[in-house]
Amino acid sequence: MDEKGSAMNPNFLYDKLVLASEDEEVQVWGKIPKSIDHIPQIVDQTPNLTDPSILERLVEVLRTFHKKNNIYTPEVENSLQSLVNGSVLGGQQPVILGGPSFIANKIAAIISVTSRLSKEGQNLAPVFMIGDYDGFQKELYRTYFPNPISGNATILDAEQELNFPEDVAIHTVPIPTHSWLESIFNQLEASIRGFVKQIKDTSKRNLLMERFFHIKTLLMTLHEEGLSFTDYFARIWGTIANKISKLGIVFFPTSLPEIREIYASELFKMVSKQEKFVSVFNQYYDLLVEKGYDPTLPKREDDYLPFFYECNCSGFRVSLVLQLKEGKKKGHGHCKLCKTAIFIDLEDEKEFFKHIRSIGPRVDSSQAIFQDLLNIKVRISGPGEIAYYALVAPALKSIDWNLPIFFKYKRSFYNTPWGEKLGKLLAQRKLRVLHDKELFALLRKRIDAIRNEDQRSYSETELEISKYFDDVFIGLLKHEKKMDVQKYLSWMFGRFTPEKYGQEVSWIWIDMALQTGLNDYAQTYLRMYHTFSMPGYKQFLNTGV
Question: Is residue 325 helix, strand or coil?
């Protein structure tokens, strides 16, 4: 329980195990690394057992996808060739305009782990899984930018443009029109100019606006009417990661029909072991509750199936249940839009495969069906993924699935000229803020630990920085009725509503890219990671114009 006596998120258990004195085998996630440096010592060395012809087919599908979206580079080809050795994988659903900045953070974590393993002769492929099988929820067609005049957010959304039900699969949805994109940039420019006015230095003001128009040109150039969410998202991040930063990230569009055909046998295998999966999943649900944790996924019913069926009428995702019909196991459901009854044979593999182009995974199966195919050695995860894998991982292990190492990427915060200006004003009023010599002393201590190759000091400093963020945030909440404090909490902590926390989680990636420029955007995140870096916790990026 936490201080208030309420159940804790399973993330707290993960963080506790990171700091555990013994390198023990943890029954939930498997072995948890103490740092990036620790990963080569515990990573699974099993070679890829996938049929070489299947892997070759997958590589060709991915190569074609990258070439079609103009994000193919020599570095990408090297990564595709490294798939035979295994992969380091992270992922996210495609979000409008590229989405929040934490996506770049995930990419940086993938590259940092891949680079460390390569020093030990383990040349793995850095892979970013595009979770376009998910439903078209509001969080995917709406994104946010800070508001220059209040603690509210500037909302950038396509709600009026995209009139699709929430349960339609993302990959079936086209991006909005060119005129919509123009209107969004007009809205965005107004907010940015509101911030720029607060900067006295003319050269800095001009630089910020130049960077904005550079970003605008990029997004307008990559836009083509009729593109899917998947392709536009891949073009944005593929250009940033591969064309600009030469990182060689392999983008993995999970819903491509050719990829669905490749993962069909893995999904069928999981369905055939459904009973054991559900039993162990629920067993660990009860275990977590007993230990004071609040699982983030519900218990699974006996008729649960680990996939959705996308109806031909519109791509509407139908939740199927396991049913016995004429003595045979069937997946059964009804489309809410066209009322069609759906039956899928779950005992005959060939009959199951006939539907595979219309079948998308759930949270439980989204990585599992690619685990052996991609020979995933390390999974880069956020807090949400770590929490639900507390249930999913042991259930998968019970049905003979290999598990990757789960490494939680860092939460990061970054500097802005307007945040710094407001921070100094609040400091004069005796409020504790991030823009304080205490934080910069901690950042210097971190640099000294790197110079001295002092891993213990580095780890201690990471914990101190995280505690500093928590303490400042909690302290400011006591004064949040004041307008200036609301602004600071919003601009620097991403708190524009009570449930939001974190700049890179709340704000569209453009906000930070204005501070770094496109050429240094991904590199700024990469510099946050060091081989001493522990999984999770927080870090400050001293960006600024």
Answer: strand
